[in-house]
Prior knowledge:
This protein starts with a helix and ends with a helix. Helix 1 (5-18) packs across helix 2 (92-105), helix 2 crosses helix 5 (216-224) and helix 3 crosses helix 6 (249-278). It has helices spanning 5-18, 92-105, 164-177, 197-205, 216-224, 249-278, and strands spanning 26-30, 42-48, 66-72, 75-81, 109-118, 128-137, 181-189, 210-212, 228-238. The chain contains six helices and nine strands; from the N terminus they run H-E-E-E-E-H-E-E-H-E-H-E-H-E-H. It is of the alpha/beta class. The protein has one domain: 3-Layer(aba) Sandwich (Rossmann fold).
Amino acid sequence: xxxxxxKIRESASVIRAAAPRLKxxxxxxxxxxxxxxxxxxKSAVTLPYAKIPHFVRSTVESHPGELVLGTLEGVPVVAMRxxxxxxEGWSFEEITYPVRVMRELGCEILIVSNxxxxxxxxxxxxxxxxxxxxxxxxxxxxxxxxxNDKLGPRFPDMSAPYDKKLMDMAAATALAxxxxxxxxxxxxxxGPNLETRAxxxxxxxxxxxxxxxxxxxxxxxxxxxxxxVLGFSVMTDACFPDxxxxxxxxxxxxxxxxxxPKLNTIVRGVMRKLGRAKR
Length: 279
C-alpha cells in the first residue's frame, strides 16, 4: 500500500523547518558501516528519525537512525544514516517511505549504498561494485495495492533502474582516482540469516554477482516517483560455496570500513560533477 500524500507532506514540512534554507537536490541512503561521508557535509543539520512524523526506527546497531541535511561538494543533499529493512519487521511501504519524502523535498537523484556478500569469484572483498541492475527475491514489492497516480504510474518501467549518465560519472571518477570499480548485478533477499551454500549457487546461477538484504525496494520506489538512481555495493564477505566460512557482523563492518574511503572518493567525485553541471 502506498502512503498518502498528506503524510509525505507532513514529514517534509518538519524536515524543511529543521533546515529552511536548504533545498536538497540529491538524496543519499548510507548502507551498513558506510556513513562516514557525513563528516564532509557542510552546514550540516541532524534530525533523528524519532522527530520526523511517520518515519519508523532503525533497529540495526550499525545504523544510527538520523537524517542529515547539508551540502556536499556544493550540492544540497539529504542523507539517511540508517535505513530500514524488511527483516526488522517493517513493511515495504515503511522501508521506502523516506524516498517518497526525499522526492517531496525536491530531490532529483538518489544515491544508494549497501554492504553485500561477494559471489563473483573474479572479484575481491573490500572493493566497490557499481550496481548495473538488480534481482528482487524479497518476496514483496512496495508498489503492491492501489496506485496513487499523484506519486507515480501504475506500471513503472524498470528497463534501466540505474542511471547510465550517473554510472559514467562514477566510473570516470574511479578511473581518475585509480580505484578499482566493478560493475554487476545485485540480488536482494529477505534475510536476516546469511545464505546456505546451495542458495549461493542458485543466486549465482541466476546471474547475480553480489547478494544483500536491502536497496531494491528503495530503487523501485525511486523509479516510481521519477528519481534518477546511482547504486553502490561494498563487498564485505566472500560467499563462495566450495570455500564458505562463517561470517559475523564485526568482520562485515571491518571490511566496510576498509572499502569506505574508496566509495566516499567516488561519491564526492560524482557530486563535484553534478555541481559543475548545474552551474
